[in-house]
Amino acid sequence: MPFPPPFYRWRPHPWHGLETGPNPPQLVHAYIEITPYDLMKYEIDKSTGYLRVDRPQRSSSQPPALYGFIPRTYCDERVAKLASTAIKGDGDPLDICVLSERPINRSEVIVTARVLGGLDVNDGGEADDKIIAVLQNDNVWGRAQDITDLPDILIERINHYFSTYKLILGEESKLKVERVYGREHALQVIQAAMADYFDEYGG
C-alpha cells in the first residue's frame, strides 16, 4: 500500500507525519487522544488527522493516564507474533499510556515518553497492546526504568480500565488483558510495530 497523501503541507498528519521519537524504541513520541479527564472516547481520524468522537464512555471509570498512540507504528503480523493469544494485529497505530505527575488536561498534544512496559491485550482475536510509559523528565516518575518501578496500584488501575472500558451489561466481553509485561518485551513490541508500519506504508 502506498504512503498516504500528506494532510496539508503545513500540518503533518499525527500518525504518518510525526517522528516516532528521539530514540525509539526506548524514548518515543506519544500523540495524546484522551486525558484522564475525558469521558468520551476520542480517536484519530485516519484520513484527516483530526480527532473524531468515537463513542461516549459507557462505564463510570475514567482513563487513569494520558492515552494515545506512537506515530509511525502499525499493529500487524509482527506485533501479533509477540502476543500470547491474538492471531492478528488490529490494524491501528500502537497504543500508549503515559503517566505524568503534573496534570495534563489537553489532548492533541505530543509528549516524549520513556517506555517501561505494557499490557498484552487480545481484543476479539486482535493484538491491541497498550505500552506503558512515563513522561520524560517527570519530577516523580522520571527515574523509573521498568514497570516494576511503578506502584502496583497504578498498574492495577490501567489494567482494570482496559479490562472494562468496552463492557456492556449482559454481554460477554471480547477483550481480555492476557498479561502485564516489562520493558524488554515492550521494546520488542514497539520495534515490531515500527517494522509493520514500514511494510505497510514505507519509510
Structural class from helices and strands? alpha+beta
Lateral arrangement of strands in the main beta sheet: 1-4-6-9-7
Q: What is the gyration radius calculated from CA atoms?
A: 16 Å
CATH overall fold name: Inorganic Pyrophosphatase
Q: What is the CATH C-level name?
A: Alpha Beta
- Shape, principal axes of CA atoms: globular
Helix content: 10-25%
The biggest beta sheet reads: 5 strands, mixed, barrel
Q: Kindly report the name of the CATH homologous superfamily.
A: Inorganic pyrophosphatase
Uncertain regions: pLDDT < 50 for 5+ in a row?
none
Oligomer: single chain
What does this structure look like?
This protein has one domain (27-201): Inorganic Pyrophosphatase (Alpha-Beta Complex). The chain contains 3 helices and 10 strands, in the order ββββαβββββαβα. It is an alpha+beta fold. The two termini are 12 Å apart. It has a 5-stranded mixed β-barrel. The mean pLDDT is 92. A hairpin with a 2-residue loop joins strand 7 (110-123) and strand 8 (126-127). The chain is globular and about 45 Å long. The protein has helices at residues 77-81, 152-164, 183-201; strands at residues 27-34, 40-44, 51-56, 66-69, 88-89, 95-99, 110-123, 126-127, 130-135, 175-181. It is 18% helix and 29% strand.
